[in-house]
């Protein structure tokens, strides 16, 4: 599973540009000879094999897109001006390596050298409009022969295993979720399970609603990466989740309040199966669950997440054991769902 | 009416935990409607069937109230929290709150805070009087939600209480169920969930019902307190008919019909033009292919505080107005 | 068709957001001569339908919103003055010392005056007025104004449409009546074109507030493709260059997550074939147009967007070049009449 996750994070798939990620996932779906639909937005909806024991319809969702940048303008001297796609702290941008467009042209994000910055500039936060990507082009026409307006620029960040069971990579939010869906869609389930790889979550939770409209599930289970701020300088009550303490259950965030019965069921499953778990200690953030819950005539939803330090940056970090425990928890909780309902 | 309001406002029911208030409402209205059920997200739907070839009119009032959700319990047993719905940190300071199991807490702030304008929920906490994390966790765990304490009082023709938003709307629907005889139109009373956290119940309820017309019944702001922002709505001058709020522009058909009913029956009313804030109408009117929607609101001072205040006559006139409305032909 | 006259006539109509009911029939009269069927729906969207030749036609919806921003009467002040609330994103900086029309029981002229400079302090001249600080002088007595105008009455900016140099036009409501003008030109053009697709041309409501018109029509009609025509920022010297488009130099076409990639490429291919110059408008998220709402309707709609560059948006002196409207209309018509392939993979499993 970890190798697949590393492969998935290597692929670039910013909101609106998810096709390469989808192609990778699709090749695995086809290996399992499963039925699927790709809709006009690009969501990939896979119907898993069912034993027909229960008529329950469950939607398992993870989003394929990651945060990144789009080229908005090419200056006369060949530099690329860009805008961000998805929520990012712009302070992480200066000094990053990126790759632009389908040809993956290497570039760097920069502003002028520190030696040439005056005191105010050195001390103040960089403004997005003062940043640019340099690909080494001579001038506008040189740059325009290599990249175009609207090209997507992704962080160049290779996945690396380090420390004790830690993985550093870009896009762990939410390739971690995608890889868990890939594991689970291989099985036969006692009810109708739809594994939905959604698009455009990072720019407004958009694909999930459309996918939910198609599936019309009874229950929605969203597998995500979530904030983990257990680092120096952050007060304990704002850390949200702790790395290595297991998958996190969310009682509430800005877009949904989890269904109580589903939350109790997942917690009970974790306790019975002796799987480590934790509760997310803040009510911040939002994800596809919010849109699934309010689709149609209403859907009961739950979000289960793997803690990711430095989320939405090229160096997000997760604990392998957390990921494995999340897979086990979701698998066992889903197995026991028909009894709960 | 005060006993109904006292009962409704005192029941625990923050967004997503509406079971207790739903049960109380259901007890009050069973036997008085033709059909009653709870949908997937917990909306309570009660139908009074119509006499003839009629329109289906949905009336919505939300059951949920705002609250504070416990997020983290520190080693000394103090509870950190986040808001459920629009909760002002200033209105919360120094208030008593109560959890579902009856445990009372005091809301206070980190005294080291230098500037009061920086008072935010993440610099505040709830104290239930325990000495340690273990002791607290026997009574309150992360995920539990507390509501404000603010018992209902009737005084000078006004009702003062927490959660008049929108238990007063629920009271209006209950009164209407009791006094309405069978009419041509089918009237669907929906007590919705999770309005305060983003109008999450009403849209799904509307989708399941697909009514012809809808009216949301909620509270609205007033412009009649010292040095307040200008607004042409006063306590006691009548329920408001919504022209627009922050999320919805009333459908002219519904707005005009409400005004016509008020004029014909000489019911005092006011017109509501808000630039911010919204209610269930915001989700209902956008459902599916659109539902012509309007709003009737009760002017309310000090919204989202434990001492909300409404005028008794406004409430009674709202019942009269809605009765006339659902009796009209469309 | 005389495009300038068409745009001017459309700009003269008052259809404030949420108050389009009184204008819908007038809009309908512009569509009717060119459609197989035309009607006003329950939310006052104006829809014109042209049947396609195919036995299994794809459905193309072309939209341009016809609502305009303005104000609503919020309260009565002493001496016949009115206070207002905004309807859509009106720029209060461009309202001082201007005229408005208050649409009460009858249309009434109002003046938004400004404090005389002699009485202004230095601090006051440095601050902009909020909408709650603006007042409309109606010149009427307290009793008269209450009789003629109710709370909630719509108020529109009063500003003439004026011909400028180089085929430019300036006035109010060009956002988005120039888009609606494009719809009429499209309908006229389609009369003499063969098209396989069923085409719905829609003047939508409430784009300036909630995109209600776009949502309800997309849901009801279930189109395969939606072409949205709206205005975008024209070149202004004090605005960031990358966010603006020069007048008369080409049709800005949207790219980014809000738009279907394949159909946008087809739109650009059509432009190249028809020698219509285009430029790219890059949006990484919500472009602030109806595309955002339409794209996620039901099972998803393939959206594309064409824009008309417009300077000084949301003031009474918006400025466009007429040729931009004609180019946008031409491109939209040619694209909508063209071939549209399968948008979801075959073998629906649900």
Could you give the topology of this structure?
The complex is a heterotrimer of chains A (341), B (330) and C (350).
Chain A: H1 2-10, H2 19-31, E1 35-38, E2 44-47, E3 49-50, E4 57-63, E5 68-74, E6 80-85, E7 97-100, E8 105-110, H3 119-123, E9 132-134, H4 140-144, E10 152-155, E11 160-162, E12 166-169, H5 172-184, E13 188-189, E14 192-198, H6 206-215, E15 219-227, E16 248-249, H7 260-272, E17 278-279, H8 289-293, E18 300-308, E19 316-319, H9 320-335, H10 337-340
Parallel strand pairs in A: 3-13, 4-14, 4-15, 15-18, 16-17
Antiparallel strand pairs in A: 1-2, 2-14, 5-6, 5-10, 7-8, 7-10, 8-9, 11-12, 12-19, 16-18
Helix pairs in contact in A: 1-5, 5-9, 7-9
Chain B: H1 2-10, H2 19-29, E1 35-38, E2 44-48, E3 56-62, E4 67-73, E5 79-84, H3 89-92, E6 96-99, E7 104-109, E8 124-127, H4 133-137, E9 145-148, E10 153-155, E11 158-161, H5 164-179, E12 186-192, H6 200-209, E13 213-220, E14 240-244, H7 252-264, E15 270-273, H8 281-284, E16 293-299, E17 308-311, H9 312-327
Helix pairs in contact in B: 1-5, 5-9, 7-9
Chain C: H1 3-12, H2 24-31, E1 37-40, E2 46-50, E3 59-65, E4 70-76, E5 81-87, E6 98-103, E7 107-112, H3 122-125, E8 135-137, H4 142-148, E9 154-157, E10 162-163, E11 168-171, H5 174-190, E12 198-204, H6 212-221, E13 225-233, E14 251-255, H7 261-273, E15 278-282, H8 291-294, E16 302-310, E17 318-321, H9 322-336
Parallel strand pairs in C: 3-12, 3-13, 13-16, 14-15
Antiparallel strand pairs in C: 1-2, 2-12, 4-5, 4-9, 5-8, 6-7, 6-9, 7-8, 10-11, 11-17
Helix pairs in contact in C: 1-5, 5-9, 7-9
CATH superfamily of the largest domain in chain B: Zn peptidases
Q: Into which percent range does the helicity of residues of chain C fall?
A: 25-40%
Per CATH, the class of the largest domain in chain B reads: Alpha Beta
Instruction: Please list the strands of the largest sheet of chain C in the order they lie side by side.
Output: 1-2-12-3-13-16
- Give the class of chain B from helix and strand content and strand pairing: alpha+beta
Straight-line N-to-C gap of chain C: 47 Å
How many strands appear in the DSSP assignment of chain B?
17
Q: Which chains have the largest interface?
A: A-C, 38 and 30 residues
* Whole-number tally of structural domains of chain C: 2
Number of helices of chain C: 9
């Amino acid at each position: 599973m970890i190798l697949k996750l590393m492969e998935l994070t290597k692929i670039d798939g910013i909101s609106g540009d998810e096709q390469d990620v989808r192609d990778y996932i699709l090749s695995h779906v086809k290996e399992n000879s499963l039925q699927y639909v790709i809709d006009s937005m690009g969501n990939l909806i896979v119907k898993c094999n069912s034993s027909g024991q229960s008529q329950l319809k469950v939607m398992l969702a993870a989003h394929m897109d990651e945060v990144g940048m789009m080229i908005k303008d090419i200056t006369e001297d060949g530099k690329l001006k860009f805008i961000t796609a998805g929520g990012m702290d712009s302070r992480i941008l200066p000094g990053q390596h990126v790759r632009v467009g389908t040809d993956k042209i290497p570039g760097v994000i920069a502003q002028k050298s520190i030696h040439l910055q005056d005191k105010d500039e050195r001390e103040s936060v960089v403004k997005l409009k003062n940043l640019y990507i340099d690909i080494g082009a001579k001038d506008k026409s040189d740059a325009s022969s290599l990249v175009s307006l609207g090209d997507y620029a992704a962080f160049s960040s290779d996945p690396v295993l380090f420390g004790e069971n830690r993985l550093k990579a870009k896009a762990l939010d939410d390739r971690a979720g995608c890889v868990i869906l890939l594991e689970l869609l291989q099985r036969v389930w006692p009810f109708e399970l739809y594994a939905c790889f959604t698009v455009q979550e990072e720019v407004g939770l958009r694909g999930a609603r459309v996918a939910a409209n198609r599936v019309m599930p009874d229950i929605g289970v969203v597998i995500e990466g979530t904030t983990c701020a257990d680092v120096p300088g952050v007060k304990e009550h704002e850390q949200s989740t702790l790395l290595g303490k297991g998958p996190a259950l969310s009682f509430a965030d800005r877009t949904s309040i989890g269904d109580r019965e589903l939350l109790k069921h997942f917690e009970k499953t974790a306790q019975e199966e002796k799987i480590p778990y934790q509760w997310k200690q803040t009510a911040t953030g939002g994800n596809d669950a919010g849109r699934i819950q309010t689709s149609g005539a209403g859907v009961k939803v739950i979000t289960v997440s793997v803690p990711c330090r430095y989320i939405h940056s090229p160096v997000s970090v997760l604990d392998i054991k957390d990921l494995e425990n999340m897979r086990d928890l979701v698998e066992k909780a889903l197995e026991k769902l028909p009894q709960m309902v | 009416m005060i006993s109904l309001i006292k009962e409704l406002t005192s029941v625990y029911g923050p967004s997503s935990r509406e079971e207790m208030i739903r049960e109380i409402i259901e007890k009050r209205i069973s036997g008085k409607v033709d059909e009653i059920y709870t949908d997937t997200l917990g909306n309570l739907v009660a139908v009074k069937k119509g006499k003839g070839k009629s329109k289906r009119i949905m009336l919505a009032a939300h059951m949920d109230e705002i609250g504070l959700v416990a997020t983290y319990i520190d080693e000394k047993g103090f509870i950190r929290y986040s808001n459920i719905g629009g909760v002002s940190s200033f209105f919360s300071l120094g208030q008593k709150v109560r959890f579902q199991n009856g445990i009372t807490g005091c809301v206070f702030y980190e005294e080291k805070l230098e500037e009061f304008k920086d008072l935010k929920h993440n610099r505040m906490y709830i104290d239930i009087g325990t000495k340690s994390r273990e002791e607290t966790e026997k009574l309150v765990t992360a995920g539990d939600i507390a509501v404000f304490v603010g018992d209902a009082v009737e005084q000078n023709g006004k009702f003062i209480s927490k959660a008049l938003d929108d238990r007063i709307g629920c009271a209006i629907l209950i009164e209407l169920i009791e006094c309405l005889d069978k009419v041509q139109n089918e009237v669907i009373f929906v007590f919705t969930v999770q309005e305060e956290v983003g109008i999450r119940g009403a849209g799904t309820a509307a989708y399941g019902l697909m009514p012809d017309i809808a009216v949301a019944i909620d509270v609205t702001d007033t412009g009649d307190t010292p040095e307040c922002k200008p607004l042409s709505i006063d306590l006691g001058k009548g329920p408001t008919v919504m022209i627009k709020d922050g999320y919805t522009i009333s459908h002219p058909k519904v707005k005009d019909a409400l005004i016509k009913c008020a004029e014909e029956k000489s019911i005092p009313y006011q017109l509501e033009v808000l630039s911010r804030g919204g209610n269930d109408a915001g989700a209902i009117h956008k459902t599916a292919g659109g539902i012509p929607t309007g709003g009737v609101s009760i002017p309310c001072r000090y919204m989202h505080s434990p001492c909300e205040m409404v005028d008794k006559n406004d409430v009674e006139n709202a019942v009269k107005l809605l009765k006339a409305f659902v009796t009209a032909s469309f | 068709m005389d495009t300038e006259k068409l745009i001017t006539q459309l700009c003269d109509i008052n259809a404030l957001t949420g108050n389009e009911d009184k204008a819908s029939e007038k809009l309908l009269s512009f569509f009717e001569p060119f459609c197989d069927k035309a009607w006003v729906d329950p939310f006052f969207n104006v829809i014109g339908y042209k049947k396609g030749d195919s036995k299994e036609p794809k459905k193309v919806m072309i939209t341009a919103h016809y609502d305009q921003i303005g104000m609503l009467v919020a309260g009565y002040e002493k001496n016949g003055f009115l206070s207002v609330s905004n309807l859509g994103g009106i720029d209060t900086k461009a309202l001082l010392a201007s005229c408005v029309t208050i649409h009460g029981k009858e249309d009434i002229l109002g003046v938004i005056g400004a404090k005389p400079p002699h009485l202004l302090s230095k601090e006051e001249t440095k601050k902009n007025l909020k909408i709650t600080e603006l007042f409309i002088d109606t010149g009427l007595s307290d009793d008269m104004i209450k009789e003629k105008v109710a709370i909630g009455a719509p108020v529109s900016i009063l500003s003439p449409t004026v011909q400028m140099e180089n085929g430019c036009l300036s006035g109010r409501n060009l956002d988005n009546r120039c888009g609606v003008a494009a719809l009429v030109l499209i309908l006229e053009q389609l009369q003499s074109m063969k098209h396989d697709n069923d085409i719905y041309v829609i003047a939508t409501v409430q784009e300036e507030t909630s995109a209600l018109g776009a949502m309800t029509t997309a849901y009801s009609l279930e189109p395969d493709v939606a072409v949205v025509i709206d205005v975008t920022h024209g070149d202004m010297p004090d605005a960031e260059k990358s966010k603006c488009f020069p007048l008369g130099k080409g049709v800005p076409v949207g790219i980014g997550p809000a738009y279907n990639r394949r159909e946008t490429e087809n739109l650009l291919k059509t432009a190249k074939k028809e020698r219509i110059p285009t430029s790219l408008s890059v949006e990484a998220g919500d472009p602030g147009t109806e595309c955002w709402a339409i794209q996620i309707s039901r099972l998803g709609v393939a959206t594309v967007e064409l824009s008309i560059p417009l300077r000084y948006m949301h003031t009474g002196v918006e400025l466009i070049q007429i040729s931009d409207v004609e180019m946008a209309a031409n491109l939209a018509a040619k694209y909508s009449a063209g071939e549209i392939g399968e948008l979801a993979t075959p073998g629906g499993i649900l």
